[in-house]
């Protein structure tokens, strides 16, 4: 089995794979009380998996402290040393940005997974703390993309920076027209973000003169399912699948086998 982890700003998302089949996944809060080792062990016990059953691991981390915590937890549980994905890792695509080392590992993994599973040209959109857009050509070249404030950040700014507006749930309202404060806020958050999303996709297609497939992932991606025709595929496990794919590629290239 292969254990993968995407250590983000808000959550550490775990995935447990057997070959290419995702057996289980979970989200842990970054900096969870009790420590990550305890949370990871609890996850494995819940799935009736022993740490000794895991023969390989991989991690992408935009928060170095969270990534390091996963590495230490893997060591504590005697799991095989995880592959840490960086811009130098072989992923099946080529980075063509100005400064490849600045590229977030999660963006690289998403781009590689989108290209591997859906072909190119493709745009990977990840709805996380930030929303990222990454374009890969039909030749497997990652050109770059967009980093925008996530929908959660936009919502929090609205009620935190105003005196009388309440905190509201981020959800799709029944109509654009709000008839009270709460419904007006929900409309502004949802449809304002939807407009930004659709604009970025159309603008990228126009600038690159490419009609690429759009693949959405991330915790809030399902919020927009059925609300737009600009997104072709919703794949909530894209990042985990990409980490597993990159791990398999790494083992094939190095001749390593899954240890037991």
Automatic annotation (TrEMBL):
Its EC number is 2.7.1.33. One of its GO terms (biological process) is coenzyme A biosynthetic process. One of its GO terms (molecular function) is ATP binding. HAMAP family: Pantothen_kinase_3. Homodimer. Belongs to the type III pantothenate kinase family. NCBIfam families: baf, PRK13321.1. This is Type III pantothenate kinase. It comes from Sporobacter termitidis DSM 10068.
């Amino acid at each position: 089995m292969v254990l993968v982890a995407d250590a983000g700003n808000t959550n550490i998302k775990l995935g447990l794979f057997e070959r290419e089949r995702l057996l289980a996944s979970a989200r842990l809060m970054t900096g969870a009380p009790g420590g990550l080792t305890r949370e990871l062990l609890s996850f494995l016990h819940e799935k009736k998996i022993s740490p000794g059953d895991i023969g390989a691991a991989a991690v992408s981390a935009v928060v170095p402290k969270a990534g390091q915590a996963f590495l230490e937890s893997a060591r504590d549980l005697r799991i095989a040393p995880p592959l840490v994905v960086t811009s130098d890792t072989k992923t099946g695509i080529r980075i063509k940005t100005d400064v490849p080392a600045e590229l977030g590992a999660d963006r690289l993994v998403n781009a590689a997974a989108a290209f591997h599973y859906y072909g190119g040209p493709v745009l990977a959109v990840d709805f996380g703390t930030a929303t990222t857009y990454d374009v890969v050509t039909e030749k497997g070249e990652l050109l770059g993309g967009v980093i925008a404030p996530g929908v959660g950040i936009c919502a929090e700014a609205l009620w935190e920076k105003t005196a009388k507006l309440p905190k509201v749930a981020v959800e799709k309202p029944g109509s654009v027209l709000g008839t009270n404060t709460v419904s007006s806020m929900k409309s502004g958050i949802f449809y304002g973000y939807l407009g930004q999303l659709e604009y970025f996709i159309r603008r990228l297609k126009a600038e690159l003169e490419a009609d690429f497939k759009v693949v959405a992932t991330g915790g809030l991606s399902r919020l927009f399912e059925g609300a737009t025709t600009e997104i072709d595929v919703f794949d909530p496990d894209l990042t985990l699948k990409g980490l597993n794919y990159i791990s398999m590629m790494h083992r094939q290239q190095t001749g390593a086998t899954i240890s037991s």
